[in-house]
Specification:
- InterPro entries: Kinase-like_dom_sf (IPR011009).
- Its EC number is 2.7.1.82.
- This protein is 62% helix and 0% strand.
- The protein is an all-alpha fold.
- The protein has a single domain, classed as Alpha-Beta Complex (Aminoglycoside 3'-phosphotransferase, Chain: A, domain 2).
């Protein structure tokens, strides 16, 4: 049979925090986007702590995770969630011009850029703990 590759952005090395931020953004869906489904700080904290525990265990560093480590990753993830909105907003603008797929790419671009500008002040105000 034939093999078709899709989602090339997932085929290479990417920033860990970008992939997690993009994952959290996708909680909102694609066709009927609802950013109230974006995980709140508590759920993100639990998810990130579990991720860091599993990572440390895999690397042989034990499973002890500090609040500072979770907070740093939380900030990085949410900063990259902004980058994800911008990336997918630009992608959707290009698709609106060239794609033959029956999808409201322009509407999707607007939704992603609106969420970017909504989140930006709160996310850029986050400070990495010393």
């Amino acid at each position: 049979g034939d093999v078709q590759f899709i989602d090339y952005e997932y085929s290479g090395y990417n920033y860990l925090a970008y992939d997690i931020g993009n994952h959290f953004n996708e909680f909102a869906g694609v066709s009927d986007v609802d950013y109230s489904l974006y995980p709140d700080r508590e759920l993100q904290g639990q998810w990130l702590r579990s991720y860091l525990e599993a990572y440390k265990e895999y690397k042989g560093f034990g499973t002890e995770v500090t609040e500072k480590e979770v907070e740093i990753l939380f900030i990085q993830v949410n900063q990259f969630a902004l980058a994800s909105h911008f990336f997918w907003g630009l992608w959707a603008l290009i698709q609106a011009k060239y794609s033959t797929i029956d999808f409201d790419f322009l509407g999707y671009a607007i939704v992603r850029f609106n969420q970017y500008f909504k989140m930006k002040p709160e996310v850029t105000a986050l400070k990495v703990p010393e």
